[in-house]
Amino acid sequence: MPDTDPRQAGASVDAIADRILGAIWEHRLPPGTKLVEEKLASAFGVSRTKVRLALARLTHDGVLSTEPNRGTFVGSPSVAQARQVFEARRLIELAMVRELAGTITREGVARLRRNVALEAASRARDDRHATIRLSGEFHLLLAQLGGNAFLQRAMRELCSLTCLVIALYDAPGMPSCPHHEHTEIVDALEAGDGELAARRMAVHLEHIEGTLRLEMPAEVAVDFDALFR
Ligand SMILES: [Zn+2]
């Protein structure tokens, strides 16, 4: 018996990072989870060095946080950070679809529709993990079609953080992305109507943020006298 899984023996640093990121996107690795190098190295059948490099990449991407003497953890955005994530997404994504409406090809529209169809199928079979991942990938695909590598990188980080935010603050039973809204955004892009696409994106991001419970106060003044006296 080989002591490593042959399918993963040659896994590259990027492949390992992508699989960890995929698990975060699918909500299989919850926010705050400690990532132990030895355990991951044995799970992937690779050296600890490769795991360390993969974790460093994800830390650099803003998805993991490293705390001195404590280790590396899946990120756990605060309420204030969650608000900033949505603010940044509004600034980027509205401008992105406005521009994309003038440049998108028929093939681009088809790729977006394929994503929407896959998401609908995973929703229909009640596969929550795949649904969350695909709904995030829709937004990454928009960035990809836009062709700006810097915006793609920013969107990758923002979508990953959104997944963590949803895992932390989602009201139970609420869908992450109302899925007919993706269809409506694609319709506007296909029609070449950038303003309509931007308006629909604004409503869409508002809906996602609205399903979250971000109203928790960061600091609560505790009256210790009332509490313990
Ligand atoms: Zn969406």
Range of strand content: under 5%
Quaternary state of the chains: single chain
Ligands bound to this protein structure: zinc ion
The helix content, as a percent range, equals: 55-70%
The number of domains is 2
Assigned CATH architecture of the largest domain: Up-down Bundle
Radius of gyration: 20 Å
Structure description:
- This protein is mainly alpha-helical and 229 residues long.
- The protein folds into 2 domains: 7-74, Winged helix-like DNA-binding domain superfamily/Winged helix DNA-binding domain (Arc Repressor Mutant, subunit A); 79-210, GntR ligand-binding domain-like (Four Helix Bundle (Hemerythrin (Met), subunit A), Up-down Bundle).
- It is built from 11 helices and 3 strands.
- It has helices spanning 6-9, 13-25, 37-44, 48-60, 79-103, 106-124, 128-146, 149-169, 179-190, 194-210, 224-228; strands at 34-35, 64-67, 71-74.
- A hairpin with a 3-residue loop joins strand 2 (64-67) and strand 3.
- The chain is globular and about 60 Å long.
- The structure holds zinc ion (ZN).
- Zinc ion binds at residues 135, 138-139, 177, 182, 204.
- Keywords: DNA-binding, Transcription, Transcription regulation.
- This is Transcriptional regulator, GntR family.
